[in-house]
Amino acid sequence: MDARHPFILAAVTLTLTGCATRSAPPEAPVASASAARGTLEQRQRQTGAAYRDLQQARYEKRLAEQDVLNAQASLDSAQRTLDAAKKALAAATAREKKADDAYEAGLRSVDDAFRAPTSR
Asked: What percent of the chain is helix, strand and coil (3-state, nearest 5)?
């Protein structure tokens, strides 16, 4: 141990001393140890499966977040397209009104000319 780490040395010493002074538990039968090992391995497998499920859920969450961002971008783009289309419709409607007014004025002019008495 390095002299710079006296606390680690003290902790290791206390741990080893504590282990040495404790009385050892009675030896468990082999079947009991085997069952405990089997239980431990089963719980490790279950924990591993739970971790894989967690990783999969995190991955799916990231995909869903990206889908939301993509949909938001599409919505923004669609909104801009809709706004441009509405503006173009308003401009076309205004041009149609102006052309209709000019046409109506032309018809009135022709009608007025037709109805005017001829001077001969």
From this structure: 85, 0, 15
Position 38 scores a pLDDT of 87
CA quadruple 54, 60, 64, 67: dihedral positive or negative?
Answer: positive
One-character DSSP codes across 34-75: HHHHHHHHHHHHHHHHHHHHHHHHHHHHHHHHHHHHHHHHHH
**How many Å apart are CA 53 and CA 116, to the nearest integer?**
92
Q: Which amino acid, 52?
A: R
Q: Are 1 and 8 in contact (CB under 8 A)?
A: yes
Residue 1 structure tokens: 């141990």
* Geometric angle at alpha carbon 97, from 92 and 98, rounded to 5°: 95
- Domain positions in the chain are 32-115
Give pLDDT tens digits for 65-111: 999 999 999 999 999 999 999 999 999 999 999 999 999 999 999 99
Q: What global pTM score does this model have?
A: 0.49
